[in-house]
Amino acid sequence: MAEPLETTIRSPLAGWTPHPLTGIRLAELPFRTQVNLRLPAKGPAADAVGLELGVPLPVEPGTTAGSGELSVLWLGPDEWLVVGSPGADLAARLAARRGAGVSVVDTSALRTTVLVAGPRARDLLAHGCALDLHPTRFPTGRCAQTLLAHAQIVLVAVDDGTSGAEPAYHLLVRSSFANYLADWLEDAAVEYR
C-alpha cells in the first residue's frame, strides 16, 4: 500500500539555525510570495498593473518600488518580480491582466529569501559577490541579478546603512541552491564568530 503524501510544506532551509555571529545576522524569510511579471514597460497594461498593486512598476534598471510588505523589483526592460508577504494572493490579483502581451506567473516555490544584515553584512557578501555594495553604488532600493559564491541570486538592498539602521540585504536564491548558499554564508562568516 502506498504511503500518504506529506501535506506539510517545508521551506528549503527548514531547521537552519545559523551560528551566532558578531556584526552579522543571517535568517531565512520563508514562503514569501513571488510573481514574475512580463509586459511592456509603458502603456495601459503597465498602468493598470501599477494601480492594482498600488505601486508603479519601476522603469529604471536595477531599482525597486514598494509599499509596506510589497516590493516590485526591476529584472529587465519588460520583466519584474513582485514580492509580497507569505500567503499574499498576488497572482490572483494580477490574473485579470493576463493576455495581450502580459504574462503573470507565480514563482513563489522557485526561491526562498535569505536575510543578511548587520554592520559587517557588506563585508560578508564581498567574499563572494563581484558587485560594489558601497551605499553610493548600491543604495537602498537597488536590486541586481548576480552570482554569490557561484549561486544565482537576486540581491536587494533593503537598507544601505546610511540612515543609521544596520545594512540589510535580501538574497532571493533558488530553492535547490538554498542549502549550499546557507553553508557558504556561514563558512565565509567564520571570522565573525
Automatic annotation (TrEMBL):
Superkingdom as given in the UniProt entry: Bacteria
Pfam families: SoxG (PF04268)
Transmembrane segments: none
Name of the protein in question: Sarcosine oxidase subunit gamma
Source organism per UniProt: Rugosimonospora africana
Gene this protein is translated from: soxG
